[in-house]
Design brief:
Layout (H helix, E strand, L loop, with lengths): L4 E4 L3 H13 L3 E7 L6 H5 L2 E6 L10 H11 L3 E3 L9 H9 L3 E2 L4 H8 L1 H11 L6 E2 L9 H11 L3 E5 L9 E3 L5 H16 L4 E5 L5 E9 L5 E8 L3 E2 L2 E2 L1 E4 L6 H17 L4 E9 L5 E7 L6 H8 L3 H9 L16 E8 L1 E2 L5 E2 L2 E2 L2 E3 L6 E5 L6 E2 L6 E9 L2 H14 L1 E3 L5 H9 L1 H4 L7 H5 L10 H17 L11 E9 L2 E9 L4 E6 L2 E11 L2 E6 L2 E10 L2 E6 L2 E6 L17 E3 L4 E6 L6 E2 L4 E7 L2 E6 L4 E6 L6 E2 L4 E6 L14
Parallel strand pairs: 1-2, 1-4, 2-3, 4-5
Antiparallel strand pairs: 6-9, 7-8, 7-9, 10-11, 10-15, 12-13, 14-17, 15-16, 17-24, 18-19, 20-23, 21-25, 22-24, 26-27, 27-28, 28-29, 29-30, 30-31, 31-32, 32-33, 34-41, 35-37, 35-40, 36-39, 37-38, 39-41
C-alpha cells in the first residue's frame, strides 16, 4: 500500500490542512478545483493542480469521473477525501480502489455500514451499543407517509426526523407538535433528496436538553482500534455544530472510559480502519446513546490534536500506508483544554443567512495557544456554491477558562471585512455565563441566544468611521502627520437603517473632531498597518479594523462590524426602490428548490412562497402580508442572485386564508 502522490478530493481549509501534513511527511500533493476556486489558496499550495469542472458541486467536487481523471493526469497514486463532498461515499471509495489507487480512509464496506443511519442503528443495536429509541425501517412500507406517521405517534414528541443517507444537519427536522409533522416529513424528504440523492428518513425521540458528545476513534489494518477521548459539540444551530471542545465539561474519567469503550466496540464491529467519530447524545443522568458514526476526519479534529499532541492527518496517512497505530490506548493522554469555533460568512442577526461576495480583508490571529485553519486570502470571493465556513479558530490552554479567554481574544484580533459574518456572535457565545460555566446543552442557543440583536456602533465607532472616511476622501490618505489647511464641514453617514448627521472639524495637527449627537469627540489616527488602525479617541487608545472600498467603509470597532456609506445629498433624485411590502426578494444568492404558489393564489401572511437553497441550507421564504399572488418570477432550478425579485403579493380586502391543517 505504498504511495507517493496524494490527490486531495476537496477544497478550502481542509485541503490546505491535508496538503501541509502531506508535505511534512514527504508526499507530493495534487489539488483539484472548480472554476470558482481557480485562485484559491489550496490550488497554489499543492505541487500540482487540476481543473475538474464548473462551480456546481455535482459537476466538480462530486464528479467521480473528473476526480479519477485528475488523479491519472497528475500521477497521483492515493486519494484523500477530506470531509464533506464524497468523503463518506462508499461508491467513490470503491471507484478509487478499482482504479488501482489507495483510498485514505475506511473500506467501502465500513462506509456503507455506517453511511445509512437506518442500517447503522440496526447494526449498533445488534452490537450492543446503546441507541436512542426510534424507527429505522428502509423498506417501501417503512418509508410510507402512513407508516412514518404511525411510528412517530408511537415514539412521541419531541421527535427528530433525519435523512438516513446524510449528515451536517441537512434533511433534519424537529417536530414539537403533531400539526407540523406532515410538513416536516415533506421538507426533510425534499432536502435529503437534494443533498444526498436519497429521500429515506429515520425517526428518533429527540433529547432536547442533552449534550452532543462524540468520541474520536482510530483503527488500523492490523486489528487494533483505540479512542482519543471525546469532543463536546453541544452548541449547535439547525443541528450544525458551532462550538466544539475537548475534553467535555460533563464527562468524568470513568464516563470517558465507558463511552470510549462503546465507540471502540462500534468501530470493531465493522472492522474499521482509519479516523472515525462515533457520536452520542448524553443525558442529564449520564446515560449515552448512539447517534451515528462519521467515517471520515471531522471538521473539529483540531481540538483533539491540541489536547493529545497528535497529528490525525499524519495518522491517517500512516495507517493508509499499512503501518500499525503509533500508540496503544494506555499511551493516550489528554493535556489541557481546547475549544474551536466555526467562522462563517453568514448574518446571525438576519436568520443566519449565508453571505456571498468579496472578502475585502482577512488577517487571522496568531499567538500562544491559537491556531486558525483556513483556505482563504484577501479579495477572494466567497462563492454561493459551497459551504459558508471561512475558517476554524481554535485555542488551547492549561485550563478550560484559559482556552476560552484565548479564543475570545483571537476572534477579536482576527480581521475579516467585506461581508457579514458571525465573529461577534461567536464571542458572545464564549462569554455567556452558561457556556463559561460549562453548562451548555444542545438547547443553549434556543434558550439563551434565540434571536440575537444586531450590535449597533456606538458614538465612538461613528466618530472613528467619520475620521477614517474624511481622511481617505478629503485628504486622500490616512497619514496623521500630513499638514493641511483646517477644514470643517457636515458629514452624513449611513449604516443599515441608521443614518446620522455629523459635524467634522479636520485640524492640520492631525486631530479630527467629530460631533456625534451634540458631543464632540477628538479622534487622532496614531498609526496604521494595512487595515489595522491604532486610534486615540479622547484619552483612550484602541485598535480597530477598517477598509475603504470605493464609496463603502467597512469598520470593526470593539467587536461591532458595520458598513458605512454616504447617502446622496438631500434633494437628489431617489434611487428606484426594490422590495417593499409584498415583494419577495432573494435574501442571498442561491438555487430555487420549489415554488409553492401560482399567479392568482390567495396567500396568508407568512405563508411560504418559495424555497431557496443557499450554501446547502434550505430557506422557506414568505412575505409579511396577505393577498393575491400577482407575479411569480422564478421556477425550480433557477440560480438567483441576492436581491432578485422572486414573487409579488398584492394586498386585497378578502379574508386571509387559514393555515393548512395537519391532515391536509
Amino acid at each position: 500500500m505504498t504511495f507517493s502522490t496524494i490527490l486531495i478530493a476537496n477544497r478550502g481549509e481542509i485541503a490546505c490542512r491535508i496538503i501541509r501534513t502531506a508535505h511534512a511527511l514527504g508526499y507530493r500533493t495534487v489539488a483539484v478545483y472548480s472554476d470558482a476556486d481557480a485562485g484559491a489558496p489550496h490550488v497554489g499550495l499543492a505541487d500540482r493542480a487540476v481543473r475538474i469542472g464548473p462551480p456546481p458541486v455535482r459537476e466538480s467536487y462530486l464528479n467521480v469521473a473528473a476526480l479519477l481523471a485528475a488523479a491519472r493526469q497528475a500521477g497521483a497514486d492515493a486519494v484523500h477525501p477530506g470531509y464533506g463532498f464524497l468523503s463518506e461515499n462508499d461508491g467513490f471509495a470503491q471507484a478509487v480502489l478499482d482504479a488501482g489507487l489507495v483510498f485514505i480512509g475506511p473500506s467501502p464496506a465500513a462506509i456503507r455500514a455506517m453511511g445509512n443511519k437506518a442500517a447503522a442503528k440496526r447494526a449498533m443495536i445488534a452490537a450492543g451499543v446503546p441507541c436512542i429509541p426510534g424507527f429505522q425501517d428502509s423498506s417501501d412500507d417503512g418509508q410510507s407517509a402512513a407508516r412514518l406517521t404511525a411510528e412517530a405517534e408511537r415514539i412521541g414528541l419531541p421527535l427528530l426526523i433525519k435523512a438516513a443517507a446524510g449528515g451536517g444537519g441537512r434533511g433534519m427536522r424537529m417536530v414539537r407538535d403533531w400539526d407540523g409533522l406532515p410538513a416536516a416529513l415533506a421538507s426533510a424528504r425534499s432536502e435529503a433528496e437534494s443533498a444526498f440523492g436519497s429521500s429515506e428518513l429515520i425517526l428518533e425521540r429527540a433529547l432536547t436538553s442533552g449534550r452532543h458528545v462524540e468520541i474520536q476513534v482510530f483503527g488500523d489494518s492490523h486489528g487494533h482500534a483505540i479512542h482519543l477521548g471525546e469532543r463536546d459539540c453541544s452548541v449547535q444551530r439547525r443541528h450544525q455544530k458551532v462550538v466544539e471542545e475537548s475534553p467535555s465539561p460533563a464527562v468524568t474519567p470513568a464516563l470517558r472510559a465507558e463511552m470510549g469503550a462503546a465507540a471502540v466496540l462500534a468501530a470493531r464491529s465493522i472492522d474499521y480502519v482509519g479516523a472515525g467519530t462515533v457520536e452520542f447524545m448524553l443525558d442529564a443522568d449520564g446515560k449515552f446513546y448512539f447517534l451515528e458514526m462519521n467515517t471520515r476526519l471531522q471538521v473539529e479534529h483540531p481540538v483533539t490534536e491540541l489536547v493529545t499532541g497528535l497529528d490525525l492527518v499524519a495518522w491517517q496517512l500512516r495507517v493508509a500506508a499499512g503501518e500499525p497505530l503509533p500508540l496503544a490506548q494506555e499511551q493516550i493522554e489528554l493535556r489541557g483544554h481546547a475549544i474551536e469555533v466555526r467562522l462563517y460568512a453568514e448574518d446571525p442577526y438576519a436568520g443566519y443567512l449565508p453571505q456571498a461576495g468579496e472578502v475585502v480583508a482577512w488577517q487571522p490571529a496568531s499567538g500562544d495557544g491559537v491556531r486558525v485553519d483556513h483556505g482563504l486570502h484577501r479579495q477572494q470571493t466567497v462563492s454561493p456554491f459551497y459551504d459558508p465556513m471561512i475558517a476554524k479558530v481554535i485555542s488551547h490552554g492549561r485550563t478550560r477558562d484559559e482556552a476560552r479567554r484565548r479564543l475570545v481574544s483571537a476572534l477579536g484580533r482576527s480581521v475579516l471585512l467585506g461581508l457579514a459574518n458571525n465573529k461577534r456572535f461567536l464571542a458572545d457565545i464564549l462569554e455567556h455565563p452558561v457556556f463559561a460555566a460549562g453548562g451548555a446543552t444542545t438547547r443553549f442557543l434556543d434558550e439563551h441566544l434565540p434571536a440575537p440583536a444586531r450590535p449597533e456602533p456606538d458614538a465612538r465607532a461613528w466618530a472613528i468611521a467619520a475620521a477614517i472616511w474624511t481622511l481617505g476622501h478629503v485628504r486622500g490618505d490616512y497619514s496623521p502627520w500630513r499638514s493641511a489647511g483646517r477644514a470643517a464641514f457636515p458629514l452624513t453617514l449611513r449604516t443599515g437603517e441608521r443614518e446620522r448627521e455629523l459635524a467634522v472639524d479636520l485640524d492640520p495637527g492631525g486631530i479630527t473632531t467629530v460631533t456625534v449627537d451634540g458631543v464632540a469627540l477628538p479622534v487622532r489616527l496614531l498609526g496604521r498597518d494595512g487595515v489595522v488602525f491604532r486610534v486615540l479617541v479622547g484619552e483612550v487608545q484602541e485598535t480597530v479594523h477598517a477598509a475603504v472600498v470605493g464609496e463603502r467603509l467597512f469598520l470593526d470597532a470593539r467587536g461591532v462590524q458595520a458598513e458605512f456609506t454616504e447617502p446622496p445629498p438631500k434633494g437628489a433624485a431617489p434611487e428606484a426602490e426594490v422590495g417593499g411590502d409584498g415583494n419577495l426578494l432573494a435574501p442571498t444568492s442561491g438555487r430555487v428548490v420549489a415554488v409553492h404558489v401560482q399567479v392568482g393564489d390567495r396567500v396568508r401572511r407568512g405563508q411560504t412562497l418559495v424555497t431557496l437553497e443557499a450554501m446547502k441550507i434550505e430557506n422557506a421564504l414568505a412575505v409579511a402580508i396577505a393577498g393575491v399572488v400577482t407575479e411569480v418570477k422564478v421556477k425550480p432550478g433557477d440560480q438567483v442572485p441576492q436581491g432578485r425579485l422572486l414573487a409579488v403579493v398584492t394586498p386585497d380586502d378578502g379574508p386571509e386564508p387559514a393555515a393548512a391543517s395537519a391532515a391536509a
